[in-house]
Q: What sequence folds into this?
């Protein structure tokens, strides 16, 4: 005859611990997924906001461009081995006066040579220099990073040579990192800009932006 209560056996205790560990693991997985989803959302939002600012700068430059060079024929003019459509060069009065697109969108009063390029690393860079010079007044500046349309089949810069505004319409398309790992979808920022003042494209005259500075 026993007077006290029986305790848990070793097997029951081990089963209880195993169940507890499984429940804890499920909670940790759910918490990690929730935090990662929130992080991806914030990162995507920040990338989209930054890209919107950069697009505003490029749009202003193209609208005020006097001369446009065809991105499809830029080749090595961007100071590196750039695939067709991955570099944009123009003579514009819309060049910004500071080294960062986040600081100001003020425009220069004198037409300036401006060049953009998208590297294989996903970095979008730009530089500018006065006409007729072979030295860049401002070295390459990274305006955005992490852009994923780095394949030759998805060029970020396209000069439309058809339609009523042929050789004046520049199509911009940038793919940002995928928004979710599960879907693998990417956020694509697009715009079509007409150079209102451009008279011609791809000139050979050195007094414009034909003399490209070295890297």
A:
């Amino acid at each position: 005859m026993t007077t006290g209560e029986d305790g848990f056996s070793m097997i029951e205790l081990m089963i209880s611990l195993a169940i507890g560990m499984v429940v804890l693991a499920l909670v940790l997985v759910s918490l990690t997924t929730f935090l990662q989803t929130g992080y991806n959302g914030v990162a995507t939002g920040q990338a989209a906001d930054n890209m919107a600012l950069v697009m505003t700068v490029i749009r202003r430059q193209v609208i005020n461009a006097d001369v446009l060079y065809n991105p499809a024929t830029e080749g090595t003019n961007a100071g590196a081995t750039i695939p067709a459509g991955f570099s944009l060069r123009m003579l514009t009065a819309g060049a910004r006066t500071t080294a960062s697109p986040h600081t100001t969108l003020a425009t220069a009063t004198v037409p300036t040579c401006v060049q953009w390029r998208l590297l294989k690393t996903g970095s979008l860079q730009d530089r500018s220099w006065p006409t007729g010079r072979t030295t860049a007044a401002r070295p390459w500046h990274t305006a955005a990073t992490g852009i994923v349309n780095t394949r030759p089949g998805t060029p970020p810069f396209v000069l439309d040579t058809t339609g009523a505004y042929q050789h004046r319409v520049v199509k911009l398309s940038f793919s940002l990192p995928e928004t979710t790992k599960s879907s693998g979808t990417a956020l694509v920022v697009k715009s079509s800009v007409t150079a209102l003042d451009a008279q011609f494209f791809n000139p050979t005259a050195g007094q414009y932006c034909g003399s490209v500075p070295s890297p």
Q: What stands out?
A: The longest helix spans residues 10-63.
